[in-house]
Automatic annotation (TrEMBL):
Keywords: Cell membrane, Membrane, Transmembrane, Transmembrane helix. The chain crosses the membrane at residues 12-33, 45-63, 84-113, 119-137, 172-195, 296-321, 333-352, 364-382, 388-408. The keyword Cytoplasm does not apply. It is a multi-pass membrane protein. It is found in: Cell membrane. CDD domains: MATE_Wzx_like. The keyword Transmembrane applies. InterPro entries: Poly_Biosynth_Transport, Polysacc_synth. It comes from Limnobacter profundi. This is Flippase. Coiled coil: none annotated.
Length: 423
């Protein structure tokens, strides 16, 4: 356990750099982009990115959890990890082919997609690049530093490209093109690195192996769908009901929230394979690690939420300009989310999934998705972008409290208290 801590810290730092730069680079270009393309075009780009994200959700399936968990538990078994990686990656390629065909059909037959066909056709590059970046496998192997370096370099490359090519609102589609270029670049480089540096038995997978991986990832994919119902679906509904400008205000505020939360994502992603392995082999060590990591996670998330709320006006006006001032109250409403979501992440990703309570995890998220669908249109009709933020806040509170209540019911907190007294 002691020897593995340096690797865990390295993984956290590597993932943290990627996550943070993933939000920081758009933040650095934000003052230029928002003032150059305007509120409506900014809203359009944001909505297209979210919709492309839905297609990425399908290609990711549930491998981020199911694949990572299996690789982490058997990473020293070369034949096993090779079989899982190749079968799951082949499944991603098949899913990718299907979603690209669906996207093309939507562009051809649906006027909403046809109106922005250049955006969506360029978005295919983002989908392909995402498939070629099997982060779930690298997380399971706890070997992600090199991939992080590749991703960081490709994202830094996007900075000059935005300033060189985006000159007016008519160039908004180039924001998607640049995203596709960097996604493909990092994807190709990562696959090349895996091929040359990780010991994989390369062979064609059987249809049975592919089917097994899709089946096992399906339950986790279901949880991703429920999460989508109360997260990224919100700005899409907002755009349809209240218009592109309202969606732009919400998306802007949520980007700042995501930036604050990006400090926590790498800790969660690095901990998940470790927690999955420890809960399988040594429950006591798993709970000890959970206690130590939770203190750090909650301290960071509480500071992030407080800072967002205090400096919301300064953040929005400084980075986006006066035209985006309606995003200030939206950011204030979203400010508690880093702390609330950090709690639900500890309860769900670091406890429920590693102890094989996937059914209960999905059940809570399914109810949350239904709750969001029942509230979102009335709230948006009453308060526009602020109503959307209220919807998100209420649903995330429900998820966190529901997971806490279930863990209390099964006596998990009592067992943690015993471990704490032993420390």
């Amino acid at each position: 356990m002691v020897k593995s801590l340096p690797r865990l810290r390295t993984n956290v730092l590597a993932l943290g750099s990627v996550q943070f730069l993933g939000y920081l680079i758009p933040l650095l270009t934000l003052p230029y982009v928002t003032r150059t393309i305007g509120v409506d075009a900014w809203g359009t780009v944001g909505l297209v990115q979210i919709i492309i994200g839905y297609f990425n959700l399908v290609t990711n399936w549930g491998f981020g959890m199911s694949g990572t968990r299996k690789i982490a538990a058997h990473r020293t078994d070369k034949n096993y990890r090779s079989r899982i990686f190749i079968a799951a990656w082949a499944a991603q390629l098949i899913l990718g082919f299907v979603v690209v065909i669906v996207l093309i059909l939507l562009i051809v037959f649906i006027p909403f997609f046809e109106s922005y066909k250049n955006f969506y056709l360029l978005g295919i590059g983002i989908i392909v690049g995402n498939i070629m970046l099997p982060v779930w496998f690298l997380n399971g192997m706890e070997c992600i530093k090199q991939s992080a370096i590749i991703q960081i370099c490709s994202r830094v490359l996007s900075l000059p490209l935005i300033f060189i090519f985006v000159k007016s609102s008519s160039d908004a589609y180039l924001m998607i093109a640049i995203g596709a270029f960097t996604s493909l670049t990092s994807g190709v480089a990562t696959i090349w690195w895996i091929f040359h540096n990780l010991d994989i038995n390369w062979r064609y997978p059987t249809f049975k192996e592919i089917f097994i991986e899709i089946k096992e990832g399906a339950t986790v994919f279901a949880s991703s769908v429920w999460i989508t119902l109360y997260t990224t679906l919100t700005p899409v509904v907002l755009g349809v009901v209240a218009g592109q400008a309202s969606a732009g205000y919400y998306i802007l505020a949520d980007r700042f929230r995501q930036l604050a939360q990006s400090l926590l994502a790498p800790i969660s992603q690095s901990l998940f394979p470790r927690m999955s392995s420890l809960f399988n082999d040594d429950t006591l060590k798993a709970k000890q690690l959970l206690l130590r990591s939770s203190k750090l996670i909650l301290a960071i998330s509480a500071s992030s939420s407080f800072s967002l709320w205090i400096f919301s006006e300064f953040i929005v006006v400084t980075f986006a300009g006066e035209d985006f001032r309606p995003a200030v109250p939206v950011l204030q409403l979203l400010a508690p989310l880093p702390f609330i979501i950090s709690l639900s992440n500890i309860f769900g990703i670091q406890i429920l999934l590693p102890i094989n309570k996937t059914k209960e995890f999905n059940g809570i998220l399914a109810v949350a998705g239904a709750l969001s669908l029942s509230m979102i249109i009335p709230l948006i009709s009453l308060r526009n972008e602020q109503g959307a933020a209220i919807n998100t806040l209420l649903v995330e509170l429900f998820v966190t409290l529901s997971m806490a209540a279930y863990l209390w019911k099964i006596g998990f907190f009592c067992s943690i208290s015993k471990v704490k007294r032993m420390a």
